[in-house]
Automatic annotation (TrEMBL):
Gene3D superfamilies given in the database record: Nucleoside phosphorylase domain
Name of the protein described by the UniProt record: Nucleoside phosphorylase domain-containing protein
GO molecular function: catalytic activity
Chain positions covered by the region annotation Disordered: 296-317
PANTHER family: AAA+ ATPASE DOMAIN-CONTAINING PROTEIN-RELATED (PTHR46082:SF6), ATP/GTP-BINDING PROTEIN-RELATED (PTHR46082)
InterPro entries with a match to the protein in the record: NLR-like, Nucleoside_phosphorylase_sf
BP term (GO), one: nucleoside metabolic process
Length: 366
């Protein structure tokens, strides 16, 4: 998804960063080393220390989805759809449903403590929602096609839509019995609904995921239970579940974007993870291209010095700066385990640096 991608190591920071551009934004990305709220918070803290001029934060990755939600459960999420965390019903878009106080014998009273996305990000989301209602619709298919063109055949397959025949929604009462085996050949397919049989939302063309806006649940525990998933939806109006966002949103006004790769039930599998990661990244790119790059000057504030680094072709990269005339941008990309998080493939991280040969200068002596 990045233009001019390359990797960067920062002194006194053990993380490998992936930098490049999306439109007028300069972007730095990091892969969370482990699942969980605390690793996510640590990764963000390290990145903000190494890149002081970060202006916006996006948490992009995969999640488990609530199959049906809304009044009378009329809204339907299918695998590959995208969920965006936005404020609703007094919530900021992310609920840390494990954070609160135990009262009585078994009752956890959840304390809302996460922040909502910044005004600039919410404005971009609202503008994009309006644009998606028009005839042209989303640009996600175009960005997915561009992504695949840059990959070899083997890697490309991981980011293709697996197809409706692999989107099984099993009955809540029908449990997966062996975590060491996949559903195929083990689970009774007659106990599942296929995506193509679940109404008009299933009639979309390939690469046309639906975008859902609502409350995202975040905690340190994986949910592999349809009963627990349904309970969390009933109590907190949660429409998807993941394991990192609360660590970011507790201290920063970011935006969480998740591709749905399973239904948070006992029938979890990895078949949809690559495609779901790609649809989330494609939405993020479309959003960034709509978000103005504001503030900053590439003259005085970007002058090289001994402490901060050197400047080249508008970039200013050093321990304390990641600055450009667009004001700087961070895309904080995380997912769960399997996901590569730049949503292309591992070899894309090592792609050659296209153009602007002086944009990433040599690190100065500190």
């Amino acid at each position: 998804m990045l233009e001019d991608p390359t990797t960067m190591e920062v002194p006194d920071d053990d993380v490998l960063y992936h930098v490049g551009r999306i439109g007028s934004h300069f972007v730095v990305m990091v892969v969370c080393p482990r699942m969980g709220i605390e690793p996510a918070a640590t990764a963000l803290a390290n990145m903000r220390r190494s890149f002081r001029n970060i202006k916006h934060v996006l948490v992009v990755g995969i999640a488990g989805g609530m199959p049906c939600y809304g009044p009378d459960l009329q809204e339907q999420i299918v695998l590959g759809d995208v969920v965006v965390g936005v404020p609703q019903q007094g919530r900021g878009g992310v609920t840390h449903y494990e954070f609160g106080a135990w009262e009585g014998q078994k009752e956890l009273t959840v304390k809302e403590h996460t922040l909502h996305p910044s005004a600039a990000l919410l404005a971009a989301v609202n503008n994009l929602r309006s644009m998606h209602m028009q005839v042209v619709g989303s640009k996600i298919p175009r960005y997915l096609e561009e992504l695949r063109r840059g990959l070899n055949e083997r890697s490309r397959q991981a980011y293709e839509d697996p197809g409706a025949e692999y989107d099984h929604l099993f009955e809540d009462s029908y449990l997966h019995t062996d975590r060491g085996r996949f559903c195929q050949g083990l689970c009774d397919a007659t106990r599942a609904k296929l995506r193509k049989s679940r109404g008009k939302r299933a009639e979309r063309k390939s690469d046309q995921p639906h975008i859902h806006y609502g409350n995202i649940g975040s905690a340190n525990a994986v949910v592999r239970s349809s009963a627990k998933r349904n309970e969390l939806h009933a109590r907190h109006n949660i429409i998807c579940l993941e394991m990192e966002a609360a660590g970011v949103m507790s201290d920063y006004q970011g935006l969480v974007i998740r591709g749905v790769c399973d239904y948070a039930d006992s029938h979890k599998n990895k078949k949809w993870q690559g495609y779901a990661a790609a649809t989330a990244a494609a939405y993020a790119k479309e959003l960034l291209l709509l978000l103005p790059a504001g503030g900053g000057s590439s003259t005085e504030s970007s002058l090289p010095d001994e402490r901060n680094g050197t400047r080249g072709d508008g970039w200013y990269v050093g321990r304390d700066q990641f600055h450009n005339s667009g004001g700087g941008f961070m895309n904080f990309n995380m997912g769960a385990g399997y996901q590569t998080n730049n949503n292309t493939a591992g070899n894309q991280y090592n792609a050659p640096f296209y153009g602007h040969p002086s944009a990433i200068p040599q690190w100065p002596k500190y």
